[in-house]
Specification:
The protein contains 13 helices and 12 strands. It is an alpha/beta fold. The longest helix is centred in the middle third of the chain and has 19 residues.
């Protein structure tokens, strides 16, 4: 609520009265529209519909209500559109729902507790899946083989999204198309983009701060590029990235000796507790400009770095707004 009021206040004081194209990236990292070759091309609620996805096409005879999710990030989009999955796979911590989803969809907790455990993402329990009698299966391309797709299609119509974080907007739109709820997804994205414009307008009168995204686990530290989930949101919001994080890919692993590549005006870092020492315990950590200035912010690992969906995006955007605007001079 506080962040919603903040974005409203930015708008009310004329923060983005000019054309939004002035702060819209010329070629945004995160695609904003489905390719013409994808989706059904049909209006909301029209069934049957044939949805072209990333591994073929699937015909849905009626509006899906019993949806099974095999790639955990898709739970975010499904819940945002008002549906609780009948079954889903576990994340790397053995949970069906990450804490940010449990908190963000608290009013649906009772129904979420009824979601069936389908096992691990790499090898879902097909017998349990079939017993659920879903009318739609959702899976990311990254988690799919042709053999697995054939098995899923024998159980229920299957729609394959792209995955890989930076594709979160078009994955949300494709998921919504399969549900016959495209208008709701477009409306959500329109509100999100209006808020990113409001935030980006702040840097027209003050130098935009640079932000770094870094996560740690037991074996490596990883910096996230512009073409990552969090990176795409920072780009939408008009925030800068250090030169070390403007590479072409999603992420890069860095050794302890190269920790300076994680530096920026603000450092947003995350790790499981037992892995935190590999990052903040490094002798180089307190020498980073962001850390030395008290601008190193620990954030939740799941919405920033592991799940890619609407509520995760809102969580990242609200965090960036709250932190970076705390040091913007006020007129």
């Amino acid at each position: 609520m506080a962040l919603a009021l903040l974005f409203t206040a930015l708008a009310d004081r004329g923060a983005f009265a000019a054309d939004a194209s002035l702060v819209k990236p010329a070629s945004p990292a995160a695609p904003r529209k489905l390719a013409a070759s994808l989706g059904s091309g049909l209006a909301n609620g029209v069934f049957p519909r044939t949805v072209v996805h990333h591994v073929g096409k699937t015909t849905l005879l009626q509006r899906p209500l019993r949806v099974a999710v095999l790639s955990t990030g898709q739970n975010d989009g499904l819940l945002t559109l008002g549906l609780v999955p009948v079954g889903t796979t576990r994340d790397d911590q053995g949970r069906l729902y990450a804490p940010y989803l449990e908190a963000g969809f608290a009013t649906q907790q009772a129904e979420m507790r009824q979601t069936t455990d389908l096992g691990v993402r790499s090898a879902p329990d097909l017998e349990v899946l079939a017993a659920l009698r879903p009318d739609l299966i959702l899976v990311n391309k990254a988690m799919l083989t042709p053999q697995m797709q054939a098995l899923y299609q024998r159980i229920a119509p299957t729609v394959v999204t792209r995955g890989n974080g930076v594709n979160w907007k078009i994955d949300f739109l494709l998921l919504a198309d399969a549900l016959g709820r495209t208008d709701a997804a477009r409306a959500w994205l329109a509100r999100y983009h209006a808020d990113t414009v409001a935030l980006a307008r702040q840097w027209l009168a003050a130098s935009a701060p640079s932000v770094s995204f870094v996560q740690a686990n037991a074996v490596r530290n990883r910096i996230m590029g512009v073409r990552s989930f969090a990176g795409s949101i920072a780009e939408d919001a008009g925030l800068l990235r250090p030169a070390s994080q403007r590479f072409a890919g999603n992420s890069q692993d860095i050794s302890a000796e190269l920790l300076d590549q994680a530096d920026a005006d603000w450092i947003f870092y995350a790790a499981r507790d037992k892995s935190l020492s590999s990052l903040t315990g490094s002798p180089l950590w307190p020498r980073l400009r962001g850390a030395a200035q008290g601008h190193a912010v620990r954030v939740a690992l799941d919405p920033f770095y592991l799940n890619a969906g609407p509520l995760a995006a809102r969580t990242v955007l609200d965090t960036l707004a709250r932190i970076t605007l705390s040091v913007v001079p006020r007129s």
